[in-house]
Write a structure and sequence with these properties.
Length: about 700
């Protein structure tokens, strides 16, 4: 095979088959005589088809995961070589690079394993496979991808085949004929078992999955049935108590699940444990990059041994998806900075360009400085916890529904007074005076909220407020978490950390994994429908406008389940609207309130939402610069115009039914001439300099340029 030193000599290959692999391509040697690799050039749009073809290798069926990745923005390099990348991704066989079979930590090599020692982790064992390749999206030609295959053989460091039907060390009767079970199939099977789906339904879906890699016959079906049954028995018999002592048990769990932990120190006080599975890391990279991260803080502060803090991202349907759990009682700046930096470091190790655009908090006492220092993004505040707490105690302590409506409305007026120009404490004083006869609720409100109401109102006025959709999504996760954890059968285990970790990484993790899988693969229709309708915002969007009748004081909504019933929503247009449905009386944000507020947002006779008033206050404050500070005023106006244009484009994109019309309205951008490659530039000829000195000058200059480009 001839050695090629320039990428322009490599032909572009585009196989005619849908899914192709390395055997369908002609590989060439690229590089120098001392260091060269097998490479091939294909269209970038067909990279996924190449990866799928490599996964379907008959001799070594597998999956490839992204071990490392880097990105550059277009125009970031003024000078570059022909093989410089715009995007760089290192794909590694999922049976490597680690080898957990060495030293007896995990069972010897086999095509798949049932994890009898570590119940919570995935059954997929890692055999130290060295097969990996690099995909470079070329900087000079973004439509092409350079595939650099470093090692095409599925072998370990000793050169022995480590997985697949050719693995001679496979253990068990007829082990080489056992159908391949990949990560996706195993996680699907485990999730269905954890969620209590009948075994025959689990087996049916499991067989459908493995038929993608092998044919269907009696032997395959029998082995699949044994696998599902044995895995179900292991999960049912599994326990969170790895040791009678809770601290010792969690140390054992942490030692067995190092890949699912991003922060943990055994001997430190206070106790801090940060948990994030590999799937959660992928979702954080996918939905958290250039997006918003929210937090459900201090869950179970009264009932659990240590409160639980959950970091959430908003998926493609704007549902809250848990991507990390932090178990700790400490809320100090130093401790928060530790686990936040550890989490961000883990994410950036996979994608160094990871960036968060906003961080939503729900506790006024939370420290904001660690968020700003770590994520370098603005902080927003969500009212969902305040609203939920007030409404639940109103319904609990006040029996008259008319009094409940009025109290909730007046509490909302305290919040709205921040932007109405009134003194919130005057409104608060009048509220406590008017409802002094409501003894039980006023005792709760005076003892719990009055001492810290100034802190909460200050945070609401200082920070931008999150939207009703975001608040509803966070509340939906909180409700689901509460149902999963506070089951009567587990009340005796609430004071154990190992039980909490086991519950999170098995049942709750499996529930969200199956939700996302059902939605993306369009399977498990019942699970998909429940997932789509899991938030009040999506349930509200299904209510037709004709079923809603608006009035100044209240709104009427026809029930979707019982057309003869009508729900009343008092104080329409406000986040503190009161509905008489059962879901709202439990303290939740119901679909009727959301639907009414959707219809009221564009009507001038109703007050704007708190998030919009907060946004309006921030924009107005940008104009309140002193007249003599002209430069600052110009800067404020420039930023405001830029933000206004971005919001207009976003609103137009969300409301448009034809994306082509939006694209045609965008301004045309021409490429700059200065972004040309160094290879295309002609060296200037200087007659006054000798050839030897000239070469030295050019060499020194080019070295300096390379150093500068590497710094950038």
């Amino acid at each position: 095979m001839d050695l090629i030193e320039t990428i322009h000599e490599i032909p572009v290959q585009n196989p005619s088959v849908d899914d192709f692999c390395a055997a369908d391509l002609k590989w060439v040697k690229f590089g120098t005589p001392e260091h060269h690799d097998d490479v091939a050039l294909i269209p970038y749009a067909r990279v996924d088809e190449f990866i799928f073809g490599e996964c379907s290798n008959v001799e070594s069926p597998t999956r490839f995961h992204i071990e490392r990745g880097r990105k550059r923005s277009k125009g970031s390099l003024l000078e570059f070589k022909s093989d410089e990348y715009l995007e760089y991704r290192l794909y590694w066989c999922s049976f490597g690079p680690e080898n957990y079979g060495e030293g007896g930590i995990i069972l010897p090599s086999r095509r798949y394993r049932l994890n009898t020692r570590n119940r919570a982790a995935r059954p997929q064992s890692m055999r130290g496979c060295t097969c990996h390749f690099v995909v470079k999206r070329l900087y000079a030609r973004p439509s092409l991808a350079l595939i650099v295959y470093n090692d095409r053989r599925h072998v370990n460091k000793s050169g022995l085949i480590c997985h697949g039907p050719l693995d001679r060390d496979a253990i068990g009767p007829r082990a080489k004929k056992i159908p391949y079970v990949g990560n996706e199939i195993q996680q699907q099977t485990m999730s269905m078992i954890y969620l209590g789906i009948p075994e025959e339904n689990v087996l049916e879906k499991h067989i459908e999955g493995i038929q993608r890699y092998c044919g269907s016959d009696v032997v395959v079906n029998s082995l699949a049935s044994q696998y599902v049954h044995k895995l179900g028995m292991i999960i049912k018999r599994s326990t969170h108590e790895l040791d009678l002592d809770d601290e010792a048990s969690i140390r054992i769990w942490a030692d067995r699940n190092k890949k699912s932990i991003f922060y943990y120190e055994e001997s430190t006080e206070p106790f801090i444990l940060g948990v994030q599975t590999e799937w959660q890391l992928q979702q954080m990279l996918r939905f958290g990059h250039h997006s918003i991260i929210a937090v459900d803080s201090t869950f179970g502060i009264k009932r659990l041994k240590y409160p639980l803090c959950t970091l959430l991202v908003f998926d493609s349907r704007q549902h809250a998806l848990p991507v990390a759990w932090v178990i700790t009682r400490s809320v100090s700046k130093a401790d928060m900075s530790k686990w936040m930096k550890a989490l961000l470091g883990r994410v950036c190790a996979v994608d160094p360009t990871f960036k968060v655009n906003g961080f939503i908090i729900d506790d006024a006492a939370a420290e904001i400085d660690p968020i700003k220092e770590t994520f370098s993004c603005p902080t927003l505040f969500s009212l969902w916890r305040v609203r939920r707490s007030w409404l639940r105690h109103i319904v609990k302590n006040c029996r008259n529904i008319e009094v409940q409506r009025e109290i909730f409305k007046r509490l909302g007026e305290i919040v709205y007074s921040i932007w109405a120009g009134a003194n919130p404490f005057t409104v608060l004083e009048k509220f406590t005076h008017d409802f002094v006869d409501q003894t039980y609720f006023m005792q709760y409100f005076t003892a719990t909220w009055v001492p810290k109401i100034e802190m909460w109102l200050t945070v609401m006025k200082t920070l931008p407020l999150a939207s009703q959709e975001a608040s509803g999504a966070i509340e939906a996760y909180h409700v689901k978490l509460k149902v999963k954890l506070f089951d009567d059968s587990h009340l005796g285990a609430l004071q154990r950390v190992d039980w909490l970790v086991h519950k999170l990484t098995t049942e709750l993790h499996s529930s969200y994994w199956l939700d996302r899988y059902a939605d993306e693969s369009d399977s498990f229709q019942t699970v998909k429908e429940e997932y789509i309708n899991s938030t009040s915002w999506h349930r509200a969007s299904q209510i037709p406008d004709t079923d809603v009748t608006l009035d100044k004081l209240f709104a009427k909504i026809v029930s979707q389940s019982d057309r003869t019933r009508v729900h009343l929503v008092w104080n329409p247009g406000s986040e503190f609207a009161f509905c008489d449905c059962e879901w709202s009386l439990r303290g939740n944000l119901c679909k009727h309130v959301v639907k009414v507020n959707m219809m009221c947002e564009n009507r001038c006779e109703y007050q704007s939402s708190t998030s919009f008033q907060s946004y309006q206050e921030i924009l107005t404050s940008m104009f309140k610069k002193p007249p003599d500070d002209s430069l600052e005023l110009d800067l404020a106006v420039a930023w405001l115009n830029q933000i206004h244009d971005q919001i207009e484009k976003l609103v137009e994109l969300n409301k448009s039914t034809d994306i082509g019309m939006v694209v045609n309205k965008l301004p045309l951008k021409w490429g700059e001439r200065k972004n040309r490659t160094l290879l295309c530039r002609q060296a200037a000829v200087r007659p006054c300099v000798s050839s030897s000195s000239k070469s030295n000058v050019v060499r020194k200059k080019s070295r300096k340029r390379r150093r500068l480009s590497s710094i950038r």
